[in-house]
Amino acid sequence: MQPVGRFAPSPTGPLHFGSLLAALASYLDIRARKGRWLVRIEDLDPPREQPGASTHILKTLEAFGLCWDGDVVYQSQRHSLYQEALGQLRQLNLTYPCNCSRKQLRTRGAQGYDGYCLQHPPASLDNCAFRVTHPEGTQFFADRIQGRREYQWQGHQGDFVIFRRDDLFAYQLAVVVDDAEQGITDILRGSDLIDETPHQLLLQSHLGYAQPSYAHIPVITNAEGQKLSKQNLAPAISGHERQHLLLKALRLLGQNPPTELEAATTEELLQWAIVHWHIARVPTVLSLPQGEE
Ligand SMILES: [Zn+2]
């Protein structure tokens, strides 16, 4: 089976270095196995989006030579698919309405969710979210970079939102529906999303979808373990600067590009990186030494 991977940014701002790292790693991991690499814009949350950000992100990917297959998919145009999946889950009784506000959850001291709306079903569906029941017990998956990940679920703490009170489809539902619909076999993304994976695995099983493989690259932190402030990448940066950033990204991903490549073009760099890609060399943690932020 030909592997299919994807890069799925939210258009909340221009592409930054951490996202470039994720896009590059996913691209190399797929191209090294002669697979298809897709781009999906996750524009589900209009208030958080920045006008022009999608175009900016796509131009930046192109400038770095990260060319995708097929058409770019926009989540904002796929609401009917998400609606259908929500209907399926409701029919199967795997989701229930919840009108708890954040404040109510805080006041009750809920860790995750406390199951309140299962005991006290909302009188009407107006202003309701939908939660999926996350069964109690142990859940685990094997991450290709981070290794075995294990989760313990108690009570209703794991019950998660797939449709929001503000009438928007939640990330969890859209991402699972899209990955299945696009035939994604290999998900490689930043480790800030690793703890979303168990919910996504559960949804895939509820909806009868195939389960892709998962790999999470580390999020870059400084020497104190803080997440780096976002360094934006303008699409217009000079060719030289692009090569420098690609080399830096390859080094951070543990791929050890030889020094001869300092003079290479973007295309030559990517060619080298595809041929020499080893996911086993990607570190599980990435912290930059002081002064190199
Ligand atoms: Zn509730």
UniProtKB/TrEMBL annotation:
Superkingdom, taxonomy of origin: Bacteria
EC top class, as a word: ligase
A GO term, aspect molecular function: zinc ion binding
Keyword ATP-binding: yes
Gene Ontology BP terms: glutamyl-tRNA aminoacylation; tRNA modification
Domain Glutamyl/glutaminyl-tRNA synthetase class Ib catalytic: 6-271
Residues reported in the UniProt entry to bind ATP: 230
Binding site for L-glutamate: 6-10, 42, 171, 189
Record-listed E.C. numbers: 6.1.1.-
Motif ('HIGH' region): 9-19
UniProt-listed SUPFAM superfamilies: Nucleotidylyl transferase
Cofactors, names only: Zn(2+)
UniProt motif 'KMSKS' region: location: 227-231
Cofactor binding notes: Binds 1 zinc ion per subunit.
One of the record's GO cellular component terms: cytosol
Keyword annotations: Aminoacyl-tRNA synthetase, ATP-binding, Ligase, Metal-binding, Nucleotide-binding, Protein biosynthesis, Zinc
Residues that, per the record, bind Zn(2+): 98, 100, 113, 117
Gene3D superfamilies, A to Z: HUPs
Stored Pfam families: tRNA-synt_1c
Keyword Ligase: yes
Protein family according to the UniProt entry: Belongs to the class-I aminoacyl-tRNA synthetase family. GluQ subfamily.
Protein role: Catalyzes the tRNA-independent activation of glutamate in presence of ATP and the subsequent transfer of glutamate onto a tRNA(Asp). Glutamate is transferred on the 2-amino-5-(4,5-dihydroxy-2-cyclopenten-1-yl) moiety of the queuosine in the wobble position of the QUC anticodon.
PANTHER family noted in UniProt: GLUTAMATE--TRNA LIGASE, GLUTAMYL-Q TRNA(ASP) SYNTHETASE
Protein name, as recorded: Glutamyl-Q tRNA(Asp) synthetase
Source organism of this protein record: Marinobacterium stanieri
Name of the coding gene: gluQ
